[in-house]
Amino acid sequence: MGLSGFLGPNVYSEVPDGGWGWVVAVAFFLVEVFTYGTIKSFGIFLQNLIDEFGETNSRVSWIVSISVFVMAFNAPFASMMTNRFGFQLVVMTGGLLITSGTIATIFTSSINQIYITYGLVAGMGYCLTFLPTVTILSQYFNHRRSLATAVASTGESLSMFALAPAFAALRDHIGWRNTMAVIGALQSVIIICGALLRPIIIKPNETLKPEADTLTLKDLSKHNDCTEGTTSGVSVTNKAFSDQNTFCSLTNELTTGSVSTADSGVQSLNDTDSGKQQETSLPHKKAKVEIEREQLEESKGEIKTSEKEEKTSRAVEKQAMKEELNNAADKKLSENNSKLLDFSILKECSFIFYSLFGLFATLGFFAPQLYIIQLSESRGVEKDHATYMLSTIAVAEILGRFSIGWILTRRQFRKKKLLVLLACVITLTVVLVGFTLVTEFYGLAVCCALYGFFLGTVVCTHIPLLAEDDVVGIERMTSAAGVYVFIQSFAGLAGPPLGGMLVDMTHNYGSAFYSCAAGMALSALFLGLVKPAKRGFSCMRRRRSESNAAHKEESEEERSK
């Protein structure tokens, strides 16, 4: 098998719910480690950048905000590039940009230059890498989609829990610039991951059907056309059997005549006369036998010819059906790829509500990790103990991702995924309010554990759930994910600065958590409207089609009159 065959498309008769999808899941795990995991771990360099460049905390924090904004804002561009050039080339290009941007950061001499290298260049690489990977992973799974996505997405939390402390220790030994170079070299793994994202093609399994299968609808439609040919074949066969019987009877007759003539020892005159008649008729019978034999051979030849023609016609018909099915699948695939970005999804209220859910929920995705240490210190927690809050969030987030993946694969929850997500969002809202009420270490630790757990349930499912029929469906997920993440980008850009502004105004770090809780509450409201809106849209479309059909019938009746 050549390289093109190994990395070429995978053709299945139905969604495999596994297979090469597990390789894609491993690739997505590594992509999570070196995209979102690296972004969330960038805080270990903040103090070094502040000290070296003499900048404020606010200006340095804009590095992460710009990177996240570029990553999300250009999501439609990533979708268009994926539809045009495929998953592999786009993700490999993104991995190259990430590596280049991160390594280029070590040569910068100001924060403004880091805005370009890490914020714009690496941010664009994150955009071209993350979204296509999670999209193709959803295409390889059906019933186990939530479980596969949840397990693979733990790379982000693992990076925060394990790699962030390791990079911090490395920074203390070799400096922040050399540590950034090591991170950039490790991020080149994404290029290999992109090569493993083999596209998936779903085609009917017509070529694997045995010839003894039942007739297809197309075969049944052509059955009457073949009846005449089959009848003629039967008549030829009957004729052959008739000719063979005649030949056998003549042969027996000749044999009987010869025996009776030879065994007769005493002959009368009449016997002599009859013998003369037999001798006269014998050559005629032999000639007749030869004629019948020739006819029999001709009949056998006709049978073989008719059977051969029938087999040939069946083979041609089967090949034509196979080509027709393949052409139909290829045509459908090309039609889907011809649309670089499908904006028709914006006409569906269900998708609009789901996008508003993602917009406001994003306010609570990044700000708590930025301010939890300062909040803990302001509540009297020692600085060494305050750093454990981030580790608590990371570990709990891993558990949350595994748990929601297992729950959504249960049969009783497969049709209620949006309700499960809604329950998690409401609980997360309550936990964010709880941060503002607790005043001691253990209360904050419990809030961090609950926040990490339910944050994990939300962040690993909100994009894959776009593939559910209650939102947009798997066929339009590529374009929908691009538009959805694009809408999220504004909250990703505004979330951390909004929390910082509230802290500056109130001099209370709890105010940042109030803004997160308010955004999460609004997201729960819009998420609760998704399914009713989807049902209303389906009913409206059904009524419209029924009214169009009735109008068409009325117009036909008027024409007939």
From TrEMBL:
Query: Which GO CC terms are listed, alphabetically?
Result: basolateral plasma membrane
List where Polar residues composition bias occurs.
261-281
The record's annotation in SUPFAM superfamilies points to: MFS general substrate transporter (SSF103473)
Provide ranges: composition bias, Basic and acidic residues.
288-316
| Record field: transmembrane | 20-39, 60-79, 85-107, 114-137, 180-201, 351-373, 385-406, 418-435, 441-467, 479-499, 511-533
Residue segments, region Disordered: 261-316
Cellular localisation: Basolateral cell membrane
List the protein's name.
Answer: Monocarboxylate transporter 7
The scientific name of the source species is Neolamprologus brichardi
